[in-house]
Amino acid sequence: MIRRRLTAAALFAATLVGVAAPVAAAGGRDTDPVREQVDRLVEQDGVPGALAFTGDATYRAGTAESGTDRPMVGADGRVRIASNSKSFTSVAVMRLILDGRLGLGDRAGAYVPRLAGSEVTVRELLAQRSGLPEYVGLMDWTAVDSTPEDHLALALSQEPLFEPGTDWAYSNTNYLVLGMIIESVTGDDFRTYVEDTVIEPLGLDATYWPEPGETALRGPHAHNYGVSPADPEAGPTDLTELPGHLFGAAGGLVSTPEDLNAFWEALFDGELLPRWAVWLMTHDASTVGGDGVHPEDTRYGYGIASFPLSCGGRYYGHGGDLPGDTVLGGHLPGSRAAGSRTVTVYTTTMAMPGDTRTHLQETVDTALCADGR
Asked: What is the CATH code for 8-79+209-372?
Protein backbone atom coordinates (compact mmCIF):
# COMPACT_ATOMS: atom_id res chain seq x y z
CA MET A 1 0.00 0.00 0.00
CA ILE A 2 1.35 3.41 -0.96
CA ARG A 3 1.63 5.75 2.02
CA ARG A 4 0.06 9.11 1.25
CA ARG A 5 1.12 11.54 3.93
CA LEU A 6 -0.65 14.80 4.35
CA THR A 7 1.55 17.75 5.22
CA ALA A 8 0.24 20.68 7.24
CA ALA A 9 0.14 22.76 4.07
CA ALA A 10 -1.82 20.12 2.20
CA LEU A 11 -4.30 19.84 5.05
CA PHE A 12 -5.39 23.39 4.36
CA ALA A 13 -5.40 22.85 0.61
CA ALA A 14 -9.02 21.74 0.47
CA THR A 15 -9.61 24.03 -2.47
CA LEU A 16 -13.12 24.86 -3.58
CA VAL A 17 -12.19 24.92 -7.26
CA GLY A 18 -14.54 22.69 -9.19
CA VAL A 19 -17.15 22.45 -6.41
CA ALA A 20 -20.31 23.94 -7.83
CA ALA A 21 -22.49 25.94 -5.45
CA PRO A 22 -25.89 27.36 -6.32
CA VAL A 23 -26.86 30.86 -5.35
CA ALA A 24 -28.23 30.97 -1.80
CA ALA A 25 -31.92 31.19 -1.23
CA ALA A 26 -32.17 34.57 0.43
CA GLY A 27 -35.20 33.76 2.67
CA GLY A 28 -35.87 35.80 5.77
CA ARG A 29 -35.35 39.51 6.29
CA ASP A 30 -32.90 41.07 3.86
CA THR A 31 -31.65 43.39 6.56
CA ASP A 32 -30.85 40.65 9.08
CA PRO A 33 -27.06 40.92 9.58
CA VAL A 34 -26.61 37.23 10.36
CA ARG A 35 -28.56 36.31 7.22
CA GLU A 36 -26.29 38.57 5.18
CA GLN A 37 -23.19 36.89 6.61
CA VAL A 38 -24.43 33.38 5.87
CA ASP A 39 -25.49 34.34 2.35
CA ARG A 40 -22.06 35.84 1.72
CA LEU A 41 -20.38 32.51 2.49
CA VAL A 42 -22.28 30.90 -0.37
CA GLU A 43 -22.68 33.74 -2.87
CA GLN A 44 -19.22 35.31 -2.50
CA ASP A 45 -17.01 32.54 -1.15
CA GLY A 46 -18.52 29.65 -3.11
CA VAL A 47 -19.18 27.41 -0.10
CA PRO A 48 -21.77 24.78 -1.16
CA GLY A 49 -23.76 25.03 2.07
CA ALA A 50 -23.64 27.19 5.19
CA LEU A 51 -25.58 27.33 8.44
CA ALA A 52 -25.66 29.51 11.56
CA PHE A 53 -27.71 28.43 14.59
CA THR A 54 -28.25 30.87 17.45
CA GLY A 55 -30.81 28.91 19.43
CA ASP A 56 -33.50 31.43 18.55
CA ALA A 57 -33.00 31.21 14.81
CA THR A 58 -31.49 28.99 12.14
CA TYR A 59 -29.96 30.65 9.08
CA ARG A 60 -29.30 28.44 6.05
CA ALA A 61 -27.86 29.13 2.63
CA GLY A 62 -26.84 27.02 -0.34
CA THR A 63 -27.57 23.35 -0.73
CA ALA A 64 -27.12 20.14 1.22
CA GLU A 65 -25.72 18.47 -1.88
CA SER A 66 -23.79 20.15 -4.63
CA GLY A 67 -25.50 19.99 -8.02
CA THR A 68 -28.97 19.60 -6.53
CA ASP A 69 -31.66 21.88 -5.16
CA ARG A 70 -31.80 20.10 -1.80
CA PRO A 71 -31.99 22.79 0.89
CA MET A 72 -29.17 23.02 3.40
CA VAL A 73 -29.84 20.95 6.51
CA GLY A 74 -31.09 22.60 9.67
CA ALA A 75 -29.75 22.73 13.21
CA ASP A 76 -30.53 19.04 13.67
CA GLY A 77 -28.21 18.00 10.83
CA ARG A 78 -25.28 15.78 11.75
CA VAL A 79 -21.80 17.18 11.20
CA ARG A 80 -18.28 16.05 12.04
CA ILE A 81 -17.30 18.67 14.61
CA ALA A 82 -13.57 17.91 14.25
CA SER A 83 -11.47 19.73 16.85
CA ASN A 84 -14.50 20.92 18.77
CA SER A 85 -14.19 17.37 20.14
CA LYS A 86 -11.23 18.60 22.20
CA SER A 87 -13.57 20.61 24.40
CA PHE A 88 -15.55 17.46 25.26
CA THR A 89 -12.32 15.58 25.96
CA SER A 90 -10.99 18.37 28.17
CA VAL A 91 -14.19 18.43 30.23
CA ALA A 92 -13.87 14.66 30.74
CA VAL A 93 -10.26 15.07 31.88
CA MET A 94 -11.30 17.81 34.31
CA ARG A 95 -13.94 15.43 35.70
CA LEU A 96 -11.16 12.94 36.52
CA ILE A 97 -9.18 15.71 38.18
CA LEU A 98 -12.13 16.82 40.29
CA ASP A 99 -12.71 13.21 41.33
CA GLY A 100 -9.11 12.96 42.52
CA ARG A 101 -8.19 10.29 39.99
CA LEU A 102 -5.80 12.50 38.02
CA GLY A 103 -3.75 15.64 38.68
CA LEU A 104 -2.98 18.61 36.45
CA GLY A 105 0.67 18.26 37.40
CA ASP A 106 0.82 14.52 36.76
CA ARG A 107 3.32 13.48 34.14
CA ALA A 108 1.78 11.94 31.06
CA GLY A 109 4.41 9.20 31.19
CA ALA A 110 2.84 7.82 34.37
CA TYR A 111 -0.10 6.71 32.22
CA VAL A 112 1.33 6.39 28.69
CA PRO A 113 4.42 4.16 28.55
CA ARG A 114 5.79 5.73 25.35
CA LEU A 115 6.12 9.00 27.26
CA ALA A 116 7.83 7.47 30.30
CA GLY A 117 10.92 9.62 29.83
CA SER A 118 9.02 12.84 29.12
CA GLU A 119 8.42 15.78 31.47
CA VAL A 120 5.11 16.63 29.80
CA THR A 121 2.23 17.10 32.26
CA VAL A 122 -1.54 16.79 31.95
CA ARG A 123 -1.83 20.59 32.25
CA GLU A 124 0.56 21.11 29.32
CA LEU A 125 -1.38 18.65 27.17
CA LEU A 126 -4.68 20.40 27.89
CA ALA A 127 -3.20 23.83 27.20
CA GLN A 128 -1.28 22.85 24.02
CA ARG A 129 2.03 23.63 25.74
CA SER A 130 3.67 20.22 25.61
CA GLY A 131 5.92 20.69 22.59
CA LEU A 132 4.77 17.33 21.19
CA PRO A 133 4.89 17.40 17.37
CA GLU A 134 1.76 17.07 15.24
CA TYR A 135 1.00 13.56 14.02
CA VAL A 136 -1.76 14.39 11.50
CA GLY A 137 0.65 15.46 8.78
CA LEU A 138 2.40 12.09 9.05
CA MET A 139 -0.69 9.88 8.99
CA ASP A 140 -1.38 7.33 6.34
CA TRP A 141 -5.04 8.12 5.70
CA THR A 142 -5.48 4.83 3.87
CA ALA A 143 -4.50 2.84 6.98
CA VAL A 144 -7.96 2.75 8.54
CA ASP A 145 -6.88 0.20 11.17
CA SER A 146 -4.14 2.39 12.63
CA THR A 147 -4.26 2.97 16.39
CA PRO A 148 -3.56 5.88 18.76
CA GLU A 149 -0.29 4.13 19.63
CA ASP A 150 0.64 4.15 15.93
CA HIS A 151 -0.13 7.85 15.70
CA LEU A 152 1.81 8.70 18.85
CA ALA A 153 4.80 6.81 17.45
CA LEU A 154 4.64 9.02 14.35
CA ALA A 155 4.70 12.16 16.48
CA LEU A 156 7.57 10.89 18.64
CA SER A 157 9.62 10.12 15.54
CA GLN A 158 10.02 13.90 15.22
CA GLU A 159 12.03 16.28 17.36
CA PRO A 160 10.02 18.09 20.08
CA LEU A 161 8.88 21.56 19.09
CA PHE A 162 10.11 23.04 22.38
CA GLU A 163 10.68 22.13 26.02
CA PRO A 164 7.39 21.41 27.81
CA GLY A 165 5.75 24.52 29.22
CA THR A 166 8.03 27.01 27.46
CA ASP A 167 5.85 27.86 24.46
CA TRP A 168 2.51 27.16 22.75
CA ALA A 169 1.78 25.17 19.61
CA TYR A 170 -1.49 23.62 18.52
CA SER A 171 -1.05 19.87 18.12
CA ASN A 172 -3.64 17.13 17.86
CA THR A 173 -1.09 14.87 19.53
CA ASN A 174 -1.85 16.51 22.87
CA TYR A 175 -5.46 15.32 22.80
CA LEU A 176 -4.51 11.97 21.35
CA VAL A 177 -2.45 11.47 24.52
CA LEU A 178 -5.24 12.75 26.77
CA GLY A 179 -7.53 10.11 25.32
CA MET A 180 -4.92 7.49 26.18
CA ILE A 181 -4.64 8.87 29.72
CA ILE A 182 -8.42 8.66 30.21
CA GLU A 183 -8.28 5.01 29.20
CA SER A 184 -5.36 4.29 31.54
CA VAL A 185 -7.10 5.89 34.52
CA THR A 186 -10.62 4.55 33.96
CA GLY A 187 -9.99 1.22 32.27
CA ASP A 188 -12.59 2.21 29.68
CA ASP A 189 -12.37 3.46 26.12
CA PHE A 190 -12.15 7.25 26.32
CA ARG A 191 -15.27 7.41 24.17
CA THR A 192 -17.27 5.57 26.82
CA TYR A 193 -16.03 7.89 29.54
CA VAL A 194 -16.90 11.03 27.54
CA GLU A 195 -20.33 9.59 26.84
CA ASP A 196 -20.89 8.81 30.52
CA THR A 197 -19.69 12.17 31.87
CA VAL A 198 -20.67 14.66 29.16
CA ILE A 199 -22.90 13.42 26.37
CA GLU A 200 -25.48 11.31 28.20
CA PRO A 201 -25.95 13.60 31.26
CA LEU A 202 -26.84 16.45 28.90
CA GLY A 203 -29.13 14.32 26.75
CA LEU A 204 -27.14 15.04 23.59
CA ASP A 205 -28.88 12.26 21.72
CA ALA A 206 -27.58 13.27 18.28
CA THR A 207 -23.91 13.33 19.38
CA TYR A 208 -21.85 10.17 18.97
CA TRP A 209 -18.42 8.68 18.38
CA PRO A 210 -18.28 6.75 15.07
CA GLU A 211 -17.70 3.01 15.39
CA PRO A 212 -14.58 1.35 13.92
CA GLY A 213 -15.01 1.12 10.17
CA GLU A 214 -18.01 3.50 10.14
CA THR A 215 -17.61 6.07 7.38
CA ALA A 216 -21.12 7.40 6.77
CA LEU A 217 -22.94 10.02 8.83
CA ARG A 218 -26.08 8.88 10.66
CA GLY A 219 -29.33 10.76 10.31
CA PRO A 220 -29.92 14.00 8.37
CA HIS A 221 -26.74 15.63 7.10
CA ALA A 222 -25.29 17.70 4.30
CA HIS A 223 -22.61 16.48 1.93
CA ASN A 224 -19.07 17.69 2.54
CA TYR A 225 -16.48 18.62 -0.06
CA GLY A 226 -12.73 19.04 -0.34
CA VAL A 227 -9.51 17.31 -1.26
CA SER A 228 -9.12 13.83 0.18
CA PRO A 229 -5.87 13.42 2.13
CA ALA A 230 -5.92 9.76 1.07
CA ASP A 231 -5.96 10.72 -2.62
CA PRO A 232 -5.04 14.40 -3.08
CA GLU A 233 -4.33 13.90 -6.79
CA ALA A 234 -8.05 13.36 -7.38
CA GLY A 235 -8.80 17.02 -6.62
CA PRO A 236 -12.01 18.28 -5.00
CA THR A 237 -14.47 15.50 -4.29
CA ASP A 238 -17.33 14.47 -2.02
CA LEU A 239 -15.85 13.75 1.43
CA THR A 240 -19.06 13.00 3.29
CA GLU A 241 -17.77 9.53 4.10
CA LEU A 242 -14.62 9.52 6.21
CA PRO A 243 -13.11 7.09 8.76
CA GLY A 244 -14.36 9.13 11.71
CA HIS A 245 -13.25 6.63 14.37
CA LEU A 246 -9.68 7.30 13.29
CA PHE A 247 -9.84 10.95 14.43
CA GLY A 248 -10.10 9.95 18.08
CA ALA A 249 -10.17 12.17 21.16
CA ALA A 250 -8.79 15.12 19.21
CA GLY A 251 -11.44 15.28 16.51
CA GLY A 252 -13.73 12.28 16.16
CA LEU A 253 -17.12 13.41 17.45
CA VAL A 254 -20.21 13.80 15.29
CA SER A 255 -22.84 16.21 16.61
CA THR A 256 -25.40 18.81 15.53
CA PRO A 257 -25.52 22.59 15.94
CA GLU A 258 -28.35 22.07 18.45
CA ASP A 259 -26.31 19.68 20.57
CA LEU A 260 -23.14 21.74 20.30
CA ASN A 261 -24.94 24.87 21.50
CA ALA A 262 -26.46 22.87 24.36
CA PHE A 263 -22.99 21.67 25.38
CA TRP A 264 -21.57 25.20 25.60
CA GLU A 265 -24.56 26.51 27.51
CA ALA A 266 -24.48 23.65 30.01
CA LEU A 267 -20.74 24.01 30.56
CA PHE A 268 -20.99 27.71 31.39
CA ASP A 269 -24.13 27.18 33.47
CA GLY A 270 -22.17 24.88 35.76
CA GLU A 271 -23.99 21.70 34.78
CA LEU A 272 -20.85 19.75 33.88
CA LEU A 273 -18.17 21.23 36.14
CA PRO A 274 -18.03 23.69 39.03
CA ARG A 275 -17.78 27.26 37.82
CA TRP A 276 -14.32 27.66 39.32
CA ALA A 277 -13.09 24.73 37.21
CA VAL A 278 -14.52 26.31 34.05
CA TRP A 279 -12.84 29.59 35.05
CA LEU A 280 -9.51 27.77 35.32
CA MET A 281 -10.00 26.11 31.95
CA THR A 282 -10.64 29.45 30.28
CA HIS A 283 -8.20 31.71 32.15
CA ASP A 284 -5.05 29.59 32.49
CA ALA A 285 -4.51 30.46 28.86
CA SER A 286 -1.90 31.41 26.28
CA THR A 287 -2.38 34.37 23.94
CA VAL A 288 -2.20 33.18 20.34
CA GLY A 289 -3.57 34.29 16.99
CA GLY A 290 -2.76 36.28 13.91
CA ASP A 291 -1.83 33.11 12.02
CA GLY A 292 -4.74 33.19 9.59
CA VAL A 293 -6.61 30.55 11.58
CA HIS A 294 -6.95 32.16 15.01
CA PRO A 295 -7.91 35.86 15.16
CA GLU A 296 -5.56 38.29 16.87
CA ASP A 297 -5.72 38.09 20.68
CA THR A 298 -7.19 34.60 20.71
CA ARG A 299 -6.46 32.89 24.02
CA TYR A 300 -6.23 29.12 24.39
CA GLY A 301 -6.88 27.43 27.73
CA TYR A 302 -7.72 23.81 28.47
CA GLY A 303 -9.45 22.75 25.26
CA ILE A 304 -11.40 26.01 25.23
CA ALA A 305 -10.36 29.15 23.38
CA SER A 306 -11.61 32.69 23.87
CA PHE A 307 -12.00 35.18 21.08
CA PRO A 308 -12.39 38.97 21.12
CA LEU A 309 -15.69 40.40 19.88
CA SER A 310 -16.11 43.56 17.82
CA CYS A 311 -18.74 44.74 20.32
CA GLY A 312 -16.40 44.23 23.27
CA GLY A 313 -15.77 41.33 25.57
CA ARG A 314 -14.92 37.77 24.60
CA TYR A 315 -16.73 34.57 23.77
CA TYR A 316 -15.58 31.05 24.62
CA GLY A 317 -15.59 28.13 22.25
CA HIS A 318 -13.47 26.22 19.76
CA GLY A 319 -13.21 25.58 16.06
CA GLY A 320 -12.84 22.46 14.01
CA ASP A 321 -11.63 21.65 10.51
CA LEU A 322 -11.66 18.51 8.44
CA PRO A 323 -10.99 18.36 4.70
CA GLY A 324 -14.78 18.39 4.20
CA ASP A 325 -16.09 20.95 6.69
CA THR A 326 -15.45 23.71 9.21
CA VAL A 327 -17.39 24.28 12.44
CA LEU A 328 -16.92 27.43 14.54
CA GLY A 329 -18.75 28.98 17.44
CA GLY A 330 -19.19 29.14 21.16
CA HIS A 331 -20.77 30.94 24.08
CA LEU A 332 -20.94 34.53 25.25
CA PRO A 333 -21.74 34.47 28.97
CA GLY A 334 -24.57 36.67 30.14
CA SER A 335 -24.42 39.97 32.00
CA ARG A 336 -26.85 42.20 33.84
CA ALA A 337 -27.56 44.07 30.63
CA ALA A 338 -28.23 41.09 28.39
CA GLY A 339 -28.69 37.36 28.40
CA SER A 340 -26.07 34.91 27.25
CA ARG A 341 -25.75 33.92 23.59
CA THR A 342 -24.48 30.85 21.81
CA VAL A 343 -23.88 30.18 18.14
CA THR A 344 -22.62 27.41 15.88
CA VAL A 345 -21.59 28.19 12.29
CA TYR A 346 -20.94 25.38 9.83
CA THR A 347 -19.78 25.21 6.21
CA THR A 348 -19.65 22.12 4.03
CA THR A 349 -16.05 22.53 3.01
CA MET A 350 -12.90 23.42 4.92
CA ALA A 351 -12.38 27.15 5.34
CA MET A 352 -8.74 27.80 4.60
CA PRO A 353 -6.87 30.83 5.96
CA GLY A 354 -8.18 33.72 3.90
CA ASP A 355 -11.47 35.42 3.15
CA THR A 356 -13.73 32.44 3.78
CA ARG A 357 -12.33 31.81 7.24
CA THR A 358 -12.49 35.51 8.04
CA HIS A 359 -16.11 35.60 6.90
CA LEU A 360 -16.91 32.58 9.06
CA GLN A 361 -15.40 34.30 12.07
CA GLU A 362 -17.36 37.45 11.24
CA THR A 363 -20.56 35.41 11.08
CA VAL A 364 -19.96 34.17 14.63
CA ASP A 365 -19.13 37.70 15.76
CA THR A 366 -22.26 39.15 14.13
CA ALA A 367 -24.52 36.56 15.75
CA LEU A 368 -23.08 37.19 19.20
CA CYS A 369 -23.01 40.99 18.84
CA ALA A 370 -26.48 41.34 17.30
CA ASP A 371 -28.85 43.99 18.69
CA GLY A 372 -25.96 46.14 19.82
CA ARG A 373 -24.53 43.61 22.28
From this structure: 3.40.710
